[in-house]
Each structure stands twice: as C-alpha cells, then as structure tokens.
C-alpha cells in the first residue's frame, strides 16, 4: 500500500535573511511603496541592534518547520507521511511559493497552519485567504487550522515559561505580569473579530495555571498609520503602573508571539528594558516558545486533527 502524503503549509510573517534585504522586505509590507530613507534607516538600525549584522532570525522559522515535520512523522502511522513547506507573508518563500511547491511535488491534500495561536481576520485570516486562492488555482485541496489559543500543551509551555521567569525575582508575589501581543487596528472590535477574546482567554488560562492574580494585558508594536490601533501601548502601561501604583517588578510575557524576532528582541528587550531602567523597575521577559517540544506537539496535534477532519 502506497503512503498517503499530506503537505503542511507552515505560515508566518517572515523576516529578511540579511541586512541587504531589509528594504525589499519593508517595501512589501508597505504594499509596494518604498520606505523613505529615514524610515528605512530606522528599521535597519533596529535590526542591527538585535543581530549586529548577522541574521539568525530566519533560522527560528526554519527550525520550527523542521521540528514540526519530525514531530508529525514520528507520530504518524506507517501509511501516512507529512511534508512541511514554508509560506511567508512578506518574504520568500511567499505563501504562494509554498503552495506552488506542494503542487509541483505532487501533493494533493494539505493542511495550513500559522505560527500564531490567535485568530484575526487581519492576521491569520489574510494568510488563509492567500493560501486558499493559490491552492484553488493549483488544484490543491487544503484545510486550515484557524487558532489553537487554548490547546493544553500550549498553555503548559507558556505556564512553564512564566514560572521560570518569576523565579528571577526575589518575591514572585510582588511581580506584575503583563501579557502582550501585536496590536491591530481598532476597527477589528467593530467586526466582532475574535483576536482580543482569544488573547484574553490564553492569558487567563496561563495566569490561573501559575496561580497568579496580579496580571494585566498590554499591546505592543502598533503600526504607524492614520487609523487608531488597540492600546494602551506597553510602554504607556509601564509608565502608568509605575506612576499610579508604584509597581517595581514587571514580567512581560509576549503571549501573542511564538518566536524570537524584532517585536520581542527589540520592542521588549531593548525599548521596554531601557524604559524600565529609567523608571527604576526590575523587568524580565519570558523566553519565546521557538522549538519548545510542547509547542511542536501543539502544532502537531492541531495539524493531525485538521487533516483527519475532526
């Protein structure tokens, strides 16, 4: 009996592979409009601050995709084989490239999953739309995992990280835990988008598992556009709790992100740390999930479930 081959399109935002690719990457994010020299320099400086000219960020995604493929095949029956393909939103290989490669390899059946646990029509939804359009064009049957914000293994992995980080403080009960995620335009609230509710559900589940009640939510990395974005921003939140509540110890858990990249390594580790130092705060961050085995098992479970039609 020949094996059933299932393709898995692993989608994420994407990042440049080197410093000289930053302009093309930024232009793609801006829908073909090149950044001004000042905007480009600011982004180059941010990347340089976290990678120093050497670019390891793409490797996170490469390792996640390889680890997921290994996890899927380790748990598969003898008649099923999984093959993972990358599909990035703003860098090569693009989402459409991943679908095209699947079709070229003779894959007939596929599952798409995004390296982001929480669904928004403006984030995960946009990945799915692009993948579906290309799959229809290629004659490929594809199903999608939309979200997995309360998967037990995801919550366990995040809980472990919060507990480990709390051990860095003298008194864990004196720490304000702030869960964060990438802000999106406020108009998603009018659309009854599930993004905010799913983030709050994940945060509440982790807080309960850790036995903490001293927590709140904050937004980060908002785009600079004319429309309002979800807030308050994490830096404003830090200032507020310092001034109004005299909070001295803060743990940031970027629950909306699964990898070490710009929004974590710069926005939290550099900008928030600099502000915390100015305010006299002790600030720590939870480690990113990256290739944590529990996260890989989470992705494996939701992909297998979707592939089987559960």
Summarize the structure.
The protein has helices at residues 22-29, 37-51, 57-75, 95-104, 124-138, 152-166, 187-190, 195-210, 234-245, 262-265, 267-279, 293-307, and strands spanning 4-12, 80-88, 109-114, 141-144, 176-182, 215-220, 249-253, 282-285.
Q: How is this structure best described in words?
A:
This protein has 310 residues and is of the alpha/beta class. The protein has two domains: 4-148 and 291-307, Rossmann fold, CATH 3.40.50.1400; 152-285, Rossmann fold (3-Layer(aba) Sandwich). The protein is 47% helix and 16% strand. The chain contains twelve helices and eight strands. The chain has helices at 22-29, 37-51, 57-75, 95-104, 124-138, 152-166, 187-190, 195-210, 234-245, 262-265, 267-279, 293-307; strands spanning 4-12, 80-88, 109-114, 141-144, 176-182, 215-220, 249-253, 282-285. It has a four-stranded parallel beta sheet with strand order 2-1-3-4, sandwiched between helices. The protein is globular.
CATH C-level category of the largest domain: Alpha Beta
DSSP strand tally:
8
What's the rounded overall pLDDT mean?
95
CATH architecture of the largest domain: 3-Layer(aba) Sandwich
Main beta-sheet strand count, sense and barrel state: 4 strands, parallel
Whole-angstrom Rg: 20 Å
